[in-house]
Amino acid sequence: MTFLRHSRYSLPKSQVTPEAAFWNRREFLRGLALAAAAAALPACNSKEDIATEPTGTDLPPRPSDTLYPPTRNDKYKAGDRKLTPATVAGHYNNFYEFTTDKADVARLASKLTIDPWTIEIGGLVQNPFQIGFEDLVKKFPLEERIYRMRCVEAWSMVVPWVGFPFRKFVELCQPLLSAKYVRFLSFHRPQEAVGQREAGYPWPYYEGLRLDEATNDLTLMTTGIYGKPLPKQHGAPVRLIVPWKYGYKGPKSIVKIEFVTEQPRSFWNDLAPDEYSFLSNVDPDVPHPRWSQATERDIGTGLRIPTLKYNGYSEFVQSLYT
Ligand SMILES: Nc1nc2c(c(=O)[nH]1)N[C@H]1C(S)=C(S)[C@@H](COP(=O)(O)O)O[C@H]1N2
Ligand SMILES: [Mo]
């Protein structure tokens, strides 16, 4: 993890950005390390430890637990794609506040305190307010939606998220007419998030959407996955899912939402503006400067498949861009 110790200003871009070849190299090295470790273990231990490794069992009990599992909204289908197993999705995470090692996020993110959790709403709204997560999650009926999820690093998965349309939350906030964009902020807690103790990234994570994108029916205020509350590695207690955009447009563990007039800045766009645009709609015809976006690897099946324009959601979002 040496690159985290350097200043982002002194780094070649290949070291500060999520880059497919970089991950392949890391995974290869990690595979070697695991194989060596496994060889050193007594045979009776290792297999069962891995098979029973839980996903998200470190969650505190909360009153909102009774809202799960919610009913499925069948409007959005993943076509011929297979649902990704929960243990695969839950151990292949991007959450740089903790580590850049996808397989280790679940372990390190267990340190995050999610109860209590307060979200601050401000900027261009009738009345700025704060809302606790337990009040927020009860405001609107939860539903399950199976979405494709495409990371800019050219891997993808298909998972059943749980949440409610972000549009309903926007109505609750009563933005002023001058509000044209929404800005999101993730938590900043270096004491709990080891990745935030290292230099090199402009914490806390920040992202933004146009208001018309934020109020599209697909944009999901997400509180759960696989019929249960979100495990910490997936961005507990609440994150955003914008399924026609690259994964980084969906900030995890949100603590602040602001309505603004000007296009807000975003974390990856600030780090490498020529590689990560503000819009970042999934597009197989627009290669990343350092790799093709024409295909993607499904982390559940291991298959390489064609990438679809708007990640297959054209019928719902094309009108936003024409
Ligand atoms: N706060 C925060 N949000 C984040 C990230 C992050 O590092 N920090 N990574 C993004 C990226 S690159 C992806 S692909 C998705 C991954 O979500 P998942 O781990 O639940 O699959 O979260 C996005 N949201
Ligand atoms: Mo990503």
Can you put this structure into words, describing what you see?
With 322 residues, the chain is an alpha+beta fold. The protein has a single domain (19-321), classed as Sulfite Oxidase, Chain A, domain 2, CATH 3.90.420.10. The chain has ten helices and twelve strands. It has helices spanning 13-16, 20-40, 43-51, 86-89, 105-109, 133-139, 166-173, 211-214, 267-271, 314-317; strands at residues 118-123, 129-132, 143-150, 155-165, 181-186, 206-210, 220-225, 228-229, 239-241, 254-260, 295-298, 304-306. A hairpin with a 5-residue loop joins strand 1 (118-123) and strand 2 (129-132). The longest helix has 21 residues, at 20-40. The ligand Nc1nc2c(c(=O)[nH]1)N[C@H]1C(S)=C(S)[C@@H](COP(=O)(O)O)O[C@H]1N2 binds at residues 18, 93-97, 151, 186, 205, 234-235, 247-248, 250-253.
Short characterization:
The chain contains ten helices and twelve strands.
Q: Could you report the average pLDDT, rounded to the nearest whole number?
A: 87
What structural class do helix, strand and pairing data support? alpha+beta
Distinct compounds present: the ligand Nc1nc2c(c(=O)[nH]1)N[C@H]1C(S)=C(S)[C@@H](COP(=O)(O)O)O[C@H]1N2, molybdenum atom
- The level 1 CATH classification is Alpha Beta
Distance from N terminus to C terminus (CA atoms, Å) equals 42 Å
Percent of residues in β-strands: 15-25%
Helix content: 10-25%
